[in-house]
Protein: Zn(2)-C6 fungal-type domain-containing protein
Amino acid sequence: MAEKDEEPATVTAAAAAAAAAEKPYHPKRPHRKSRAGCRNCKTRKVKCDEGRPACRMCTLRHETCMYMVPPKRASRVPSSSPAPSRDGESAASASHALGQLRCAGAVISQPQFRPSGYYDTDMRLLWFYTTATYSSFSTGSLKERNVDVVLKVNVVQHAFANRFLMDTILGLSAMHINHLGLKNMGVPRSLELQYRARAFETYRKAVEAADPATYPALLITSLFLCGLSTHVFRGEEARPFAILDWMTLWKGIGTIIGLIGFPDEQLYRTSFGALLFRPSIDLDASARCIPSQLLFMIASVKDGDPDFPLVKSYYGALQLLGSLYLELRNGFTPLLFLRVVTFFTFLSHPLIRAAREMRPRALVIVAHYLPFTRFKANHSWWVEDIAEYEIPNICNFLGPEWKTLLQLPMASLQTEDNMTLARLLLGDPSWHPPSTIEEEPFTSLYERELSIRTIKSENAPEVEYQEDVLGLKLC
Structure:
């Protein structure tokens, strides 16, 4: 009976083999679906091996590999992680992973990687820094100062190795996000405040420690703090004459370089050399651009006047101010922006002391500098509103006696565009900028603006926050 049962089975198997041999193709073998595959493989409806940063199929086809969802292992990282590792290997791997957040030709609205010791909010802020915030310290492709790679790569590498720099970057990004009103990023004002407070605290401790290994990170942090500290010009935290402390902070960058004792050659051989570049000033040419009323203000100081010992310092400050007028004649160039933001670093200590002592002539000079911060020819969002806040404070403090010398700064507050403001400052209603103006590379501008618009268009749900053991409200 068993032999009879086996015979049909044998015949059936032989028939199936013969039928398979006649088929012109082989059917696909069943396989597990790739739910996290790249966009190209999904379009072609083929299995993706989900290789990072590029899958095998895209690599063979020489195509840009783009993923629409983060890798699964990132979602399994617990929210409560130990303190960040300080060893170089961890910092290097984290920095490399952050670089993968910026896929070529795509805008990713959420980071794909979270290293040990960092929260999801930290990674969102760090991603936003490398996408948008970094550009507020860039001058584009200026020949003497092309620092985009330094800001997006070298600075981030140092941030993973130096917590005070990382805290400053996160605080700056949180401040930028709220300045733009990007509620979808899930960074409330209270969290911005906590990031900022931690940045100042960890920086203070690093300065006190004065570890030579942290000197490069201290320099870049001092630069970023000049942007982070501008919260004192806006909102509930605003306080009159905060500009005087801001002047001191900018001047402190040069002081830190002096304390460190870096020879100029050694400093400029580092990756931060271009970032700390300040354009030279032709003092003789700049002196010819000083407004005549300001020159008369200094020339009228006679022996016996309390300001007489400061005449030389006042004139030096006016020469620096003249360099802004001189550069403005060339149009709204990246170099003009660089001269505006580095202006206070050139001022002498006597001039800064005179301003902090609220001496009228020093305050008048500061008031005439402030209109230059209103030019919308750059992306330094952190200088916005400073002039609108401080020029009226200076005018109210000095009173009617100095009103004539403050007419131009007050009139600048009524301008709404670059051209009108430039014509007012230059005293030439028919002025036009030269046609040869160096513009920021289109690709960099497009990438940043597209990223911000993408975030604004997201309909993300409101994020709930819980108090963390570190004192930060983290999602």
